[in-house]
Amino acid sequence: MRRALLTTLLALALPLGSLAQTVEAGGAKFDTSMEVGGQKLVLNGLGVRYKAVFKVYSVGFYLKQKADTTDGVVKQDGPKRVLLKLLRDLDSKDLGKAFTEGMRKNSVPEERAKTINGIFKFGEIFNEMKKANAGTAIGIDWIPGTGAQIFVDYKPVGEPIKEIEFYNALLRIWLGENPADEDLKELLLGKEKKSRRG
């Protein structure tokens, strides 16, 4: 009887299936799968953003199916998630400026006009944040029919941004022609980085 009870308690304590599997980047843990918009997404790639020799944040991309090219990520249908975990205290306004600048630098001409509204709203969210502390989770989900929902520590912030062009520009911060970090681009596409960092 005791053995049966112990077995039941252990079964309840263990994660269901493989949902609780995690991987690590820069000391931050990421689940290998998540649910967004009622659909299961898999971790496409994961890496650390460096500024000089300092770790700034870890970032992971979640998609329905793995993709190893920029077009494969950007043009894939269905929900998506970009998830960042800050590795140091940052000025939220500076972080917002870096993201909006990255979007402007990497937006493609045919989509540029439709990114302006989203980029403005995105920047405003960071302007309103008092501080971005180490350990903060910042995510941006794309949910078809709803738009891009930003969240901070898994709580929605602001109204969804409707334009898919905004979300495409967001993905290109890391995957565009002028990415934030070439090594990180390779990692987010599920490839080995080209060079090593100390």
The Cα radius of gyration reads 18 Å
Encode the helix/strand succession as letters.
HEEEEEHEHHHEEEHH
Q: Going across the major beta sheet, what is the strand order? A: 3-4-5-6-7-8-9
- What proportion strand? 25-35%
Overall, the morphology is globular
CATH class: Alpha Beta
Question: Low-confidence spans: pLDDT under 50, at least 5 residues?
Answer: 1-19
CATH-defined topology? Chalcone isomerase
Mean pLDDT figure:
87
Distance between the termini: 55 Å
Main sheet summary: 7 strands, antiparallel
Number of strands: 9
Brief summary of the model shown:
With 198 residues, the protein is of the alpha+beta class. It is 34% helix and 31% strand.
List the helices and strands and how they pair.
Elements: H1 2-13, E1 22-25, E2 28-31, E3 33-36, E4 39-51, E5 54-63, H2 70-74, E6 80-86, H3 92-106, H4 109-112, H5 116-128, E7 137-143, E8 147-152, E9 155-161, H6 164-175, H7 182-188
Antiparallel strand pairs: 1-2, 3-4, 4-5, 5-6, 6-7, 7-8, 8-9
Helix pairs in contact: 3-5, 3-6
Signal peptide: 1-20
Domain Chalcone isomerase: 24-190
InterPro entries: Chalcone_isomerase, Chalcone_isomerase_3-sand, Chalcone_isomerase_sf
